[in-house]
Amino acid sequence: MRRLFNVLSLWCGLVCVLAGHAAPAWGLSLDDKLALLVAAYPQSLSHVADGRLHFRDGGPPLAIDDGRTKTHAQALESADVEDMLSQPYPIGPCETRSEVDIDPGRVRSEALLKRLYGASREAVIRQLTTIDWFGARLKVTTAQGMDRALLKVRDDLAKLPETVMQPASKSAGTFNWRVIAGTDRLSVHSFGAAIDLDTAYADYWLWAGGRPGDVPYYKNRVPMEIVEVFERHGFIWGGRWYHFDTMHFEYRPELIAIARTAGFDACAAP
């Protein structure tokens, strides 16, 4: 019975996302999600009031909703905070296949990311540190505790059998101030808050000949044990996106917290 409830919740959540509706259909209101967002970034976020996010540094608050109804493509180009939280991210040790334009976490408010990690390359660099990643030296941000979370990922990955963790033993990159290919949007790598794993095991929707809204399925080569470790410590996986990027993990503890609270379980899919 519990599994049936989870399946129905998952189905309803996907239907409502596809229909453009907000989160209550999968268990959480926007206020619920905003509270989890604030809790996920206590270093920078203070509270929500009057439709705006307030910051501990006393800087100008950020509007949660810009009042525009957007297509998926428009949300990618100019997301507000509400857009950023609009699609539920499924967690767990099971693979998922997203419907068209279901990219939980790929829609990002650049304005918020700049407030969390730094508004310029120089500001981000001032908060970088270097960590050891299975013999490699990687530059990542210290903001929001991302570096500490990634070290926990590394330590848990080291406990996996060598044949399982092999795709994670090499990194294709972390900090790199750049825009996403073909767009004017900054990559999360620009903020030092993402890591790409070994490209030898990677699948990427553009490499596969996909076009926006028209992407082929892929055969995953990243063991789900690796995905589960990353999700355990607040990272989402690009392999759960319709526009997939299976080597990509980014620090999004708010989406993991929302998924856990809502019980949005990847293994509950029909």
Automatic annotation (TrEMBL):
Transit peptide as a keyword?
no
Q: Which domain of life is it from?
A: Bacteria
Cleaved signal peptide residues: 1-22
A Pfam family matched by this chain, by name? Peptidase_M15_4
InterPro entries from the UniProt entry:
Peptidase_M15C, Zn_M74/Hedgehog-like
**In what residue span(s) does the Peptidase M15C domain sit?**
182-251
> Does this entry carry the keyword Transcription regulation?
no
What name does this protein carry? Answer: NLP/P60 protein
* Species this protein is from: Polymorphum gilvum (strain LMG 25793 / CGMCC 1.9160 / SL003B-26A1)
